[in-house]
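re: ur question from yesterday

yeah so i grabbed the chain u mentioned. its 444 aa long if i counted rite. heres the sequnce exactly as i have it in my notes:
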Amino acid sequence: MGRRLAVIGGDAGGMSAAAVAKRREPELDIVVFERGSYTSFSACGIPFHVGGEVDPLEELVARTPQKHRENGLDVRMGAEVVGIDLGARELTLADDSQEGFDELLVATGARPTPPPIPGIEAAEASRTLAEGGRLRAAIDAEGSGGAVVLGSGYIGLELAEALVRQGVETTMIDVADQVFGVLDPEMAAHVQRAAEGLGIDVRLETQAEEVLLDAGGRPRAVRAGGNEISTRHVIVATGVKPAVQLAEEAGMTVGESGALAVDDHQRAAGQEGVWVAGDCCESHHRILETAVNIQLGTHANKQGRVVGINVTGGDLAFPGVLGTAITRICHLDIALTGLTERQAKEAGFDYVVETIETDTRARYMPGSERMWVKLVAEKGTGRLLGGQIVGGATAGKRIDSLAMALWAGMDVESLMWVDLSYAPPVSGTLDPVLVAARAIKKLV
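ran it thru and got these structure tokens back, copy pasting raw so excuse formatting
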């Protein structure tokens, strides 16, 4: 038998690596172990299925297990790896069978972190396609009983909006003092107003205390903040943590971020022939100059590609991350890249901030909407440190201009002269990014 690469996890990082490696080295024996029912799926699309915008559920699958098999990969579905013996080069599966390997990729993703409260086992989740499908079916069958969403981050807000669009009375609960915790508070306030304007009952600084069940073991209410909220559906969106237990038990190193430590070639720290990619691993932050765990499909796919090239004799370094992200919630584009003001302060930067309010198009054009751009820059040098954008349609993709500026290490004076496009249907005479750069330049 030839050289064998075993992959634990069949989504973005795992399948990207497997596909690239197979193309580069067709004789390489690659076996993928996926405990779920789907490979290469878009978890980000699940709220849009729940909200009725994407049907059927399988539209969210980029490549099926069968398609991967046709491309020469040995894909095992419903195959859960429960043990790793790095010395013996052997995996143990849930059915007590063993599988050998020469090289190993750990792409186990992240695991949900539901609150440890009575009755939480009756709540629903939407991390996987199977969970998303069950939630949509439950809402279709009995949506009128109301829903409580625990958590107000990306997924919580997207699911709350999806439920409201399905006609479900929805309450969103979070212990934090703001929604969308990755934004600075004043930017998150725009998101909260939009959510409430859509009809979502937002309750912040509120602790979920118990999911109350009926005689059949299904939710009938949630006790939170001393009140009872009647509901038929409780959805957990309280965040996730890197799924590292399996690897840690095998002796792999977990970094300070709580994710698996890797070098810039995605090699597991201190392990020969062991690779890591995706939500379970650390990445180098290009501004903070430290290891972070930022869970985005964009990172997972790129890291998987790096593994696929390097495991087949290449020499490719993953250049790091900025944390650039975008979503659309309650009629608003929400985007960020680099550091928020809070992160800049925590990291010890001497910084300045500026926020502008403007329009997504020339103000006289039909359909023009309000938008806000916040920039963070280093005082003295003027180096751009980060940006946030909240606003109407077309506002958010401007974050890519800021991401490119950050990637290149630009200062705000250089940014304010960049040759960005203009036409009344898509922008004012000066793009909002340029306007924001001009404004913050006066402060540095």
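noticed a couple things. The chain has a mean pLDDT of 96. also Residues 2 and 29 are 7 Å apart (CA to CA).
anyway ttyl
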